[in-house]
Amino acid sequence: MQGKHLFEYAVIRVLPKVEREEFINVGIILFSKRAKYIRMLYKLDTNRLGIFCTELDVDLLDDALTSFEKICNGNKEAGVIAQFDIPERFRWLTAVRSSCIQTSRPHPGFADNLDEKVEKLFEELVL
Fold this sequence. Notes:
127 residues, five-stranded antiparallel beta sheet, 4 helices, globular
C-alpha cells in the first residue's frame, strides 16, 4: 500500500461488569475506506483478566471475540452482518453497545502502511 491512507481505528475493550464501566483493552480494529482495508487484532491475557475479574468466563469471551473477528473479516459463516461492505461492518462493530465487549469511539489518522499501523497501535494500546 503506497502513499498516505486515511484510516479510523477503535480500541476493543472488555467490561466484565458493564455497570461499573471499568475495562481492559484487548484489541484494535482499523479500517480505511479508500484502501478497502479492515483488520482486527486481539489478545486475551488470562492472567490480567483474572486479576481484574475473578468470575469472568474467558472461553465465552474468546468465542465472542472470535465472532467479532469473523464479522470483521467478512467470513460467510458469521452471518448477514459479515456480508456488509467494509465501512458498514466497521460501523456495526464500533457501534455503541452495552455488552461486555465494547469499542472506543473511532479515532482518525494517516499512515503509509496500514498493516504496520494496526500492529503498532496494538502494541501501544493493548499489549
